[in-house]
Specification:
This protein has about 230 residues and is α+β, with helices and mostly antiparallel strands. The protein has eight helices and four strands; from the N terminus they run αββββααααααα. The relative contact order is 0.10.
């Protein structure tokens, strides 16, 4: 017999006699983005209780296990923090709403809603998923926002949109890579530049967009300068 083989054998034998088993109980279900499958899947939320087993038979409770999420497709278990990641459908909706809000904020900052800016904003919003968006619809929204605040120039209305910018961008930012966050800012910058150089109000709005997307001030300046270069 090789050295140590006896001890290993005894350890394996003990493991077959004594062990721990977890009994899982479903407490909820839904749809989530499964990191193992790489797509949207159904899930069950499970709570568990561990028991000491003797010859495979549960004999003594060993306490509760941390709750888990079980994918209905791959059957893998994940921590409940997996539910923090939006599904593909929800992520697409968050991205679409973010671009739409940024476009409106920049148009409000411009005030006059020049045709070139409206064209650039409409193209960005359509590309994000609002395929039926028109220039007239965006112009009507900007005018309605200005009327609500009693502002003809758009300064007060875009100030009010700062809250909406954070509401749309704050939840999205953690799920975007740096290049994705900069892309949203770049689209806003190009809308602002479509009718001429940045105005002070447009710069303020774009700075708010950058802050909501957790982009540093230096990087915001770099993106705004890069937007001057035709794509």
């Amino acid at each position: 017999m090789l050295p140590g083989r006896g001890r290993d054998g005894r350890a394996n034998g003990l493991a077959r006699i004594l062990g721990t088993r977890t009994a899982w109980t479903p407490v909820g279900d839904g749809e989530f983005f499964c990191p193992g499958c790489g797509g949207d899947r159904n899930y069950q939320r499970l709570t568990g209780h561990r028991r000491l087993t003797l010859l495979g038979v549960p004999v003594l409770p060993r306490g509760a296990s941390a709750p888990v999420v079980e994918c209905a497709a791959c059957r893998r278990h994940y921590g409940t923090d997996a539910l923090d990641h939006p599904t593909t459908v929800r992520f697409s909706g968050m991205l679409r709403d973010a671009v739409h809000t940024v476009a409106l904020a920049v148009l409000c900052a411009g005030g006059a809603c020049a045709r070139a800016s409206l064209d650039a904003a409409t193209a960005a919003v359509r590309a994000a998923g609002f395929e039926d968006c028109t220039e007239d619809q965006l112009a009507a929204l900007v005018h309605a926002l200005a009327s609500d605040t009693g502002s003809a120039s758009g300064e007060a209305s875009c100030a009010g949109l700062a809250i909406e910018l954070h509401e749309a961008l704050d939840p999205l930012a953690p799920h975007l890579a740096q290049v994705g966050r900069e892309s949203i800012l770049l689209q806003g910058a190009r809308i602002a530049l479509a009718d001429g150089p940045y105005t002070p109000v447009e710069r303020d709005v774009l700075a708010t967009v950058g802050a909501a997307l957790t982009i540093g001030a230096d990087e915001v300046s770099r993106v705004l300068e890069a937007a001057r270069t035709p794509s």
